[in-house]
Amino acid sequence: xxxxxxxxxxxxxxxxxxxxxxxxxxxxxFAMFLLGGxxxxxxxxxxxQPGMQLIKPEFFxxxxxxxxxxxVFGAIMPAFVGLANWMIPLMIGAPDMAxxxxxxxxxxxxxxxxxxxxxxxxxxxxxxxxxxxxYAPLSTTYAPESVNYFIFAIHIMGASSIMGSINxxxxxxxxxxxxxxxxxxxxxxxxxxxxxxxxxxxxxxLAGAVTMxxxxxxxxxxxxxxxxxxxxxxxQHVFWFFGHPEVYIIILPAFGVVSxxxxxxxxxxxxxxxxxVYATAAIAFLSFIVWAHHMFTVGMPIxxxxxxxxxxxxxxxxxxxxxxxxxTTMYKGSLTFETPMLFSIAFVILFTFGGFTGxxxxxxxxxxxxHDTYFVVAHFHYVMVAGAVFSGTAAIYYWLPKWCGRMxxxxxxxVQFWVxxxxxxxxxxxxxxxxxxxxxRRYADYGLQFADWNMVSSIGAFIYGGAQLxxxxxxxxxxxxxxxxxxxxxxxxAEGLEWTVATPAPYHTxxxxxxxx
Amino acid sequence: MATESGxxxxxxxxxxxxxxxxxxxxxxxxxxxxxxxxxxVFLIGAVVMFCVMYKWWSTVIDExxxxxANDQLKHSYVLGMLWFIFSEVMFFAAFFGALFxxxxxxxxxxxxxxxxxxxxxxxxxxxxxxxxxxWPGYETQWPVMVTPDQAANGDAAQxxxxxxSMSFPGWDRLLQWLPLWNTLVLLSSSxxxxxxxxxxxxNNRKKFLQWLGLxxxxxxxxxxxxVEEYVEAYQHxxxxxxxxxxxxxxxxxxxxxxxxxxxxxxxLLIAFLRGLKGHFKSDDQxxxxxxxxxxxxxxVVWVGLFIFVYVLA
Lengths: 517, 313
Hints:
The complex is a heterodimer of chains A (about 525) and B (about 325).
Chain A: H1 10-13, H2 18-46, H3 57-92, H4 100-119, H5 147-174, H6 187-218, H7 232-266, H8 273-287, H9 302-314, H10 316-330, H11 339-362, H12 364-370, H13 374-404, E1 406-407, H14 410-436, H15 451-481, E2 483-484
Antiparallel strand pairs in A: 1-2
Chain B: H1 15-36, H2 40-65, H3 71-110, E1 115-117, E2 120-123, H4 125-134, H5 148-153, H6 178-201, H7 205-236, H8 244-276, H9 286-311
Antiparallel strand pairs in B: 1-2
Helix pairs in contact in B: 1-2, 3-8, 3-9, 6-7, 6-9, 7-8, 8-9
């Protein structure tokens, strides 16, 4: 029981320890974040000025596709799985995840999957170039041969996600310490168990979608081919039945993180805990019945347009509950503004902004104008980046002292925050204007009237990219030479079981379950 | 390492990394198989996977025999299996969804019959134009015996509909209708596996093994019938994967179901062999129960298939 980690590289390769696996996930996701970020830099460099400067349009398409895929499946999702691995057992008083070996398998699939996916860039005909949504027939009839590698990479990523999610569900349902009832669980645990449910429900549908593609491409079926009686629009339905829950899979754990951090630095309990839980569940439920709002311009019957429009607008209600609760938690709180709190407040503001543009997009009639423009790009980067990535960054600063027993440099953290915050807004705010003015997404070139804002956006993107290198620097410096801290409770306002164990967290925690009152 | 509360947290293990390597090889190998026709990498990956799965489950069984698995850990396994089955349900949901969408929405659009709504049968102008300009001559039909491609392009068509479908052939030929026998075999096997389960719970090992053995045999028989059906389809009915959307949905749905029956039969066979070795107790039988749940699941999927692929056509 008392023994610590194994020596050498074997510790990481063969581990069954939830903290080790969490660390592996976090570093892997950061590596993918830098890779996807590099693709983004290529895109923004090409778009710095009108005309073709650096790369060919064919390669530009591969860059937008790979940027999306790597960021969604390689960076954001694994980052939150890493946080789940680290924090859920600590938060519910469990000795480890419920199925520790499967936990390690879920992780180690990912490097293989992304090695396969990235290798497509070097294949004949190039990598996937059909956008991260891989609509048929671009991804079937007109796809490069490497699409087959993409399909199987997606398959094993899905297997990894499903196993990881089943593990989280089993852990939360089965491993809670005595007295840790469902309605006492920290909100991060709640949001993750609901996320895991979404993943188990929709990753198989994605597997179905890519299987249909594989069959259409190689075995003569006609799922997405009207000549045989199928329909390319069928692809969009199947994809978005996965894809819409997927965006909540990305954002719900981010909600959970913010719901941990804001009470800590407001020195008040979270306002409206149970309404937060119900709102999360409501968002998850609604996510299954709104998918075709991504397809307003595809030629749906008017009844479909109306249904998906109203159902989509409904999501604003539980989301509004959440934003209200975060703000009310801060109201009359004893606020301090350490780095995690700064990122969390920025999250609330910018995510709400992204939510409002989402509401604009939900209006079917208006969406005809916005569809496939930079307005959409701006919208989802406000929720994906200022939402998920800001929240993930907040989580790193918030729990890093607990993980490694060293404190990050507060000044450096805050500088990084402001560079990220300003860079992000310079990068993405102008994209709203570009989109409303009519600039379509996924093009390597653009009309001269879009030149100024594109240059501004590119400059912002470079600044934001630099902020991520600062984050990397901050984390490495903290781990290597940060001021040692051994206080169990790093933050005076923090509540929860994870703050009752020693700092840094011992290799094995809660081998005797704590009693929760 | 067991915790003080008795929850067994395994020591570090090489199995997950080897399994991930096997999966990676299989994924890469499967892609290069369809691209270049060489299946070497895929087969190496499959062998690695087979070995690692054998070893992994042996390890888990050994741990249980040593008494390392307490009730809480066993419950983790139960949850794992149930949520895995749920993920399988959702996989089939994608293909059933495709079938319903094609039948209810795509087909009338291609045939120019898509109407305004439930109470108004007038075809929309868009649907009519779709039919007249893109697929002239195509008539809404299920099963799709003449594809839109054929209707519009005649002999030049790439997708040629089947000569015959698998639908209900009429009461006079009921007994020659294979899907009916398949249904009987599979539904009965769900019953026999339940009898085996009850026998095991009552500690009647002989009865358990007999009925489980019978279930495995029925699973195998179902698969034989299924192969027979496919041979029939390919050789005599002109029904293939490539014969338009009917062949597509028919083979993909029944094919994935058949693959799952194969898996379920193997799981039950392993449970049977373990039973012969004296594994399982009246109150400790997760390996068998998991296989039995899976078996009920493939049975329920078949009921859906029988109704929506065979009968309502």
